[in-house]
Amino acid sequence: MFISAGRKIQGLTLALCGLLAACVPAPPPGSYRTPQSLDDRIWSVAGERFVTPDTLLQAMTEARFVLLGEVHDNPRHHALEAWAMRALVEKNRRFALVAEMISTDQDKALKLFSETPRDNAATLRLFLDWDNSGWPDWAAYEPIFTAAVRGGVPIMAGNLDRTLLPALHRSGSAAFDDKTRADLALPAALPEAVGPALRDAIQSSHCGALPERVVQAFAEIQFARDAEMTRALMSTPDNALLIAEAEHVRKDRAVPYQLHRLGAHGRVLSIAFMETRPGQSSPTDYDIAAYDYVWFTPAIPRNDPCKPAG
């Protein structure tokens, strides 16, 4: 992880903001069109009502752990995450950024990046070898990391060591050594409270085509990933913000569940950026119960991976 020298500049900026009372940035413009459209509207699951970005931001400032769940290839989600970063910095929140897109084997690269004061994250792309990482284009994520650099926000790895993945894909969590199992507090078997749901979600996301042995291994990897993200979040002395795929921020079986399992203290706020679907204009048409807030956005065009080619 790293801490930018920008914290002093941030302090001066915040002092001026206190005088001007108008420094918190507005969210980037969206595509909200009609009162009937869900696009770019925010739904409070507990409150059963739409809320404003300011209301959501206030809820974020009151939580120790803020979990933002994205669809990885949707640029709108990345833009909203960058807004959340900047807005929390302007609110003078002290927090760390935990990113699913960075693995623990890249900790040394993060440390090297931090050794030189910077005012943007452009070169982090090289330190992380981003172009060969398999993640979406760097341009989508750079504003998020630049907001962290300029705000003096530590950046931390949230994903498993990539060198372990081949063995994990073959053997599931049995591939972990005793130290890793202890560090992540991994149980001998997936808890009954989450195991079946994890297996069902993985099978569904792979079009029902995976052998059961592979489904079990992938479910164990997913559970371990959530545990790694949780460990990173809990290691921060102040507050923490997680950016991950929306499946990882579900309260019923993912990081919020792990925070409870591992005894974390402090409020957890789970926010999903969720793509709308044609003909489904009510929040209750969507799988929203596993989150605290859902920020609806337009979907981006994709081919159906389960549809036969041709």
Automatic annotation (TrEMBL):
<protein>
    <submittedName>
        <fullName>ChaN family lipoprotein</fullName>
    </submittedName>
</protein>
<feature type="domain" description="Haem-binding uptake Tiki superfamily ChaN">
    <location>
        <begin position="56"/>
        <end position="259"/>
    </location>
</feature>
<dbReference type="InterPro" id="IPR007314">
    <property type="entry name" value="Cofac_haem-bd_dom"/>
</dbReference>
<keyword id="KW-0732">Signal</keyword>
<dbReference type="Pfam" id="PF04187">
    <property type="entry name" value="Cofac_haem_bdg"/>
</dbReference>
<feature type="signal peptide">
    <location>
        <begin position="1"/>
        <end position="26"/>
    </location>
</feature>
<dbReference type="InterPro" id="IPR016773">
    <property type="entry name" value="Fe3_uptake_reg_CjrA_prd"/>
</dbReference>
<keyword id="KW-0449">Lipoprotein</keyword>
